[in-house]
Amino acid sequence: MATAAPFKLTYSTMFDPPAELHQRFDAALAAFRQHGMGRSWPHWIGGKAVAGQGEFEGRSPIDRDWLLGRYARGDAQVADAAVQAARAAWPGWAATPWRQRVALLRRAARLIEERVYAISAAVALEVGKNRMESLGEVQETADLFDWYCDQMEAHDGFDRPLPDDPLAGYVSHNRSVLKPYGVWVVIAPFNFPVALAGGPLAPALVAGNTVVVKGGEDTTLSTWLLIECLRDAGLPDGVVNLVCGDGEHVGAPLAAHPQVAGLTFTGSHAVGMGLLRQSVAGRWPRPFIAEMGGKNATIVSRHGDLERAALGIMRSSFGLSGQKCSACSRVYVEQPVAAELRERLVALTEKIAVGDPTLQPNWMGPVIHAAAQQRYRRLADHLHATGQVFTGGRVLEEGAMARGWFVAPTVATAPLDDAAWVDEHFLPLVLVGEVASVDEGIARANASELGLTAGFYGTPEEVRHFHQHIEAGVTYANRPQGATTGAWPGYQPFGGWKGSGTTGKAIGSFYYLPQYLREQSQTVVE
User: Does the pLDDT value for residue 189 go beyond 80?
Assistant: First the structure.
């Protein structure tokens, strides 16, 4: 079994990685290419491998000739079987003392850390993200597991004695106890297939719920490797289940299943709002936790550090090819410094090494699939016609990139009333617009129906004003590491306001875990 690295992996490691990190990643990548590619993967239901009605292929967005795996094709029958297995396992898991659940989840976290390079190699090939982003995601997942175990311990299992009733002649004892709901469904996206499956999975499990997971169709392997860590940690059969397939044939039946007690979804605003409405349309409302994207803005004051701003915007806009819900997609800069900021941002963007992201020199990889590349092409054509493209704006089809879904990182502008400022594109493209004041920038940022992250560059007084008025759940000020990106468990909770989230409680926060529990008030009279 592999051993954990002697250094701590965090997002900060990405800015000063030790040589050993690259050596171990390259070795894991070579091993996966030799032994891990092209395997068939089943569903995992009730502690058993379950075949599907046929298989679908998973190919790398880096090179569509690379067959990463074949996966069991799911349907409503498979979804029902997974829910029934989770339902059968729930009484025993809920009755398991919470300290035992914590011990099992911590064991899973250590397995994730031990396998961090092997899992990250698969993530890099399957998602198309670079090695540092891949390693950061997998380590973050282990840290999220530990965080929720820490929270369970810090609150002593969420079992609190309350004062006795002041009744003459009686002794009346009171308690508040948080208890699990039952079967919980986790629907994860393609861009963080490990962290955004594990981030909800861990609190649901440590709280005593059983879980059915459906990952992104394009990134099934990465989610499978996470489930293997839970399986190998010794969780009882049926406590965690994985179904493979698409949203229409598997995700929708899972979300609509009458025996599902709660649901966590990460994905588009349109799909999330539909699921939210569905969650309150049954016999009683079900808890629904969703993160539904962002149209994240950065505001740059005339007093801001433009070097920091340009670097932070570049990293946030083009990390993971702009396919982060927290990516910076629009910038509002005060007019006196707009030209200089654009020049700095364009210069940094044109230095980005685009190509196979598993190779150490390349920082930006492809978009996830052909549909994303086509969406980019349409947007670029629109901006060439109605706005101005300062750099990029083209599909990359030179050499080996012709076999993948590569596009150029793009800095552009458009009239401030253009739809490109409103629609979430999930692409490596950032719009830069000029405003007369910081207040105008904040107002334009807040005009979006989404409110996930926001960035700001300016003076301390301006930062206070920004924090007082911005409508976003995660904010960053004067941050060169990323203008709107880079949350890490224990440092930056991650969750959105308005149309970006349903609860106002953030992943990795002090308030997230209790959402997977319901309160019971207990009074016993002697």
Answer: yes
Nearest one of 313, 277, 261, 271 to 291, comparing CA atoms: 271
| Separation of alpha carbons 275 and 427, rounded Å | 25
Instruction: Give the model confidence (pLDDT) of 67-115 as tens digits.
Output: 999 999 999 999 999 999 999 999 999 999 999 999 999 999 999 999 9
Based on the residue annotation, tell me whether 229 is a catalytic residue of this protein.
no
Spell out the residues 6+ positions from residue 298 whose beta carbon is closer than 8 angstroms to its own: 309, 312, 313, 316, 328, 330, 331, 332, 454, 455, 456, 457, 483, 484
From residue 92, alpha-carbon distances to 88, 98, 101, 315 in Å are 8, 12, 11, 46
Instruction: Give the separation between CA 502 and CA 513, rounded to whole angstroms.
Output: 15
- CA atoms 311, 313, 314, 320: torsion sign: positive
Distance CA 471, CA 452 (A): 8
Write down the pLDDT at residue 5: 47
User: Of 17-21, 208-212, 309-313, which gets the smallest average pLDDT?
Assistant: 17-21
Average pLDDT, the chain: 96
Q: Phi then psi for 87, rounded to 5 degrees?
A: -65, -40
Note the pLDDT tens digit of each residue in 246-262.
999 999 999 999 999 99
297-336 pLDDT tens trace: 999 999 999 999 999 999 999 999 999 999 999 999 999 9
Contact call for residues 257 and 241 (beta carbons, < 8 A):
no
State the burial class of residue 261 (Cβ atoms within 10 Å of its Cβ: 0-12, 13-18, 19+): buried
Among 1-10, 290-299, 342-351, 470-479, the least confident range = 1-10
Catalytic residue, candidates 113, 133, 291, 424? 291
Which is nearest to 237 in space by CA: 49, 57, 52, 100? Answer: 49
CA distance 93 to 241: 14
Nearest to 447 by CA among 412, 483, 484, 422: 422
One-character DSSP codes across 354-407: BS-TTSTT--B---SSHHHHHHHHHHHHHHHHHSEEEE--SB--SGGGGGTT-B
Residue 475 parent element (H or E):
strand 474-477
- Cα gap 308→437, rounded to integer Å: 19
**Dihedral in degrees, nearest 10, Cα atoms 459, 463, 469, 474:** 140
Give yes or no: 149 in active site: no
Catalytic residue among 149, 229, 244, 325: 325
DSSP assignment letter at 236: P
Residue with tokens 């058993």: 48
- Tell me the CA distances in angstroms from 173 to 157, 163, 260, 470, one per residue in order: 19, 7, 33, 46
